[in-house]
Amino acid sequence: MKPKNQRLALVSAAIMALLVAVLLAMWGLRSQASFFYTPADIAAGKAANGEAARLGGMVEKGSIRREPDGVTIRFVLTDGRATTPVVYRGIVPDLFREGSGAVAEGRLQNGTFVADTILAKHDERYMPPELGNLAAEHKAGKTLEK
Amino acid sequence: MIAETGLAALWLAAGLAAYQFVLMVLALRSDIAVTRPMRGVAVIQGVLTLLAFGMLLLVFARSDMSVALVFENSNSAKPFIYKVAGAWGNHEGSMLMWVTILAIAGAFVALFSRRTGERTLTAALGSQAVLALGFYAFLLVASNPFARLFPAPPDGQGLNPLLQDPGLAFHPPTLYLGYVGLSVAFSFAVGALLTGEVDSRLARAMRPWVLGAWILLTLGITAGSYWAYYELGWGGYWFWDPVENASLMPWLAATALLHSINVLAARGALKAWTMMLAVIAFSMSMVGTFLVRSGILTSVHAFAIDPQRGTFLLVLLAIYVGAAFVLFAVRGASLKEGTPFELVSRESGLVVNNLLLSVVLGIVFLGTLYPLFIEALSGEKLSVGAPYFNALAGPLALLLAIMVGIGPLLRWRRERRPVFGQLKIPALIGVSALVMTILAAPAMHILPRLGFGVAAYLIAASILPLVGRNPLRAPLATWGMVVSHFGIAVALSGMAANAAFSSERLAIAKPGEILTVGPWQVQLESVTPTAGKNWTANEAELRASRGQGAFTLKPETRYYSDPPTETNESAIRTFWNGQLYTVVGKEDASGAWQLRLWWKPFVTLIWAGGALIAIGGALALLGRLLPLLRRRRFPEWRRRYA
Q1: What is the pLDDT of residues B213-230, one digit of tens each?
Q2: Chain B neighbours among A 35-74 (CB < 8 Å)?
Q3: Which residue among B296, B337, B564 sits closest to A124, beta carbon to beta carbon?
Q4: pTM for the model
Q5: Does A30 touch chain B (CB under 8 A)?
Q6: d(Cα B294, Cα A82) in Å, to the nearest integer?
Q7: DSSP for B385-450, written as a single string
Q8: Which option is the CATH number for A34-145: 3.30.300.20, 3.30.70.60, 2.40.50.140, 1.25.40.180?
Q9: Tell me, what's the ipTM?
């Protein structure tokens, strides 16, 4: 192959690779990205049944219940405007408590959020960014009410 | 005085870096030979930064609470090793460590690099100094690690206990060394683009740095994966967490660069291509640092969120990467392409390797940053997780693993021999492994099934370059390649085995009760409270056996007081054929404890494979460096008269 043609071949190969990556990623992101919802979004019907999603809110006081098998828990997440029941099978993470913030990853099934993973505050400084905003909104809302 | 000494050293180093930049401009605009002063200044700059970093270690070691950073991130009750490691377990300290490594890398280039032309070396050192200058500005203006508190508080606030682990002490430095090693490749590329001396000499000068960085990145990723595995107590080894991706992206780019640089070194071809990869590889390091340090993404690793720091890093990233791309656009086209090659040749094989790696890199990059774009554009929040990455990167990685078996068999320039005949036996092994998984485990998912097939094929195919020649006579670099490629097969089989054969048991048990997981009977004997230096814990005693040879495992749930945190300390027992992994959770009202048990057959192969890949890199590096050392010890004149 002549050097000039070779360069042309290489450049077009690189551009092809770039295109393939972008197209694959766009296709994958359309079907696999999961949106972040609050209980109010769920109440408004924004999340489709069975779609992968994340749900964030505060764990409602007195809502945590354990099933007889000892490892399945049910609780309610709230954002002050609406509530969503959540079911989770597993060991809840560090500092998952009533009255504190948590994010559940999973999917909505017939009104109940079935979580595969629960993220809670890891320590005083860690806060999922989505929850940071939520807490701020919450505070703002309260101040307005006053 | 210690902190002030550190700060002063940092200012001086910044001044010298600026001076280096001026020297570079002078040298490029006229033909003044500035290489000697340039080398000297680069070395002094490295020493000064090292001094500053040493001072930071000292204030942490002495728990000097009058330094704000120590107060915020340390506590006098901490074990000594974590006091010292705490110096880089935070934002300011880790940025200082980054610039220290950067400056020292520059000093090493100044001391030892003899291979490139003088002008290119000068330009490369100048570029390295500019990189450092940005980080000096960042430290001195936006995040001074030596800031004092007055009056000094009595004791510090402590360190995230998740990070109080030997992993913390060595994981970030390893990754940073890798990131910064790529900065040298970047600087060489920028230097060579400025002077137009892109040739095989340049590739040979860059290669040890790329290899070294790549080895450290491989080790860092492997160690980080094991750290997440045992410390988080989730039983997984890779979560496609943004911070994990931040280390994977430079690795993918460095792997591509590592392969294309060999083409440039051996054949003088792929010039523009290799320079582009060198720029991309360091850009990915910067992106990685930005993602981790700005805390912009939701992550199990993310620290506090501070938009100002994120913005500063982003601006630096934009300036450096933007300038490099502009330089590439201006100069890249004028590079003469080297020796041509035919479609079936070693060069083409390496181009295919590069293309596949680039596609995987693109997919990981877009998946990691997509949530950011969307939030910036529409304010909508979303996350991209394992399903996306597994579905897209998984098949491409398998395809790449198949190519790994073929490429090394091809000759440079033109391959006319019937090479594919050699691959009959590996292909046969791979297909029979595939058939066996279909017969033995019909319910297995497609990806692990293919994983087994490809791993079996690659185990045989990777050693082919040593077949038919005296293995002891083969160059170390060839051995390194074989060991690394073999390591890919080993890691792949571990991943497939973990995906296909892991068994999990999640249940509650009262003391005395027995749970079954895989072949194991695990009995909960007791749960007792214990205490360590700065934590208290509930320690479960589990007795596990499969027929004979019972042993005890002691997983814990720990409670730290400063800051108040709870962690699950898993207890893991390793066997030749897998790991038994146990986690204890909480107690319920009836006195039963939550237990999570996994039997993970051959999961250790994942990290063994990672280690083999790194060892292969080390062999290749040794193979490149030994001849240099020998030449240095016996210079031409001495050999003549010996």
Answers
A1: 999 999 999 988 998 888
A2: 35-36, 52, 54, 66, 69-71
A3: B564
A4: 0.90
A5: no
A6: 32
A7: -HHHHHHHHHHHHHHHHHHHHHGGGSPSS---S-GGGGGHHHHHHHHHHHHHHHHH-TT--HHHHH
A8: 2.40.50.140
A9: 0.79
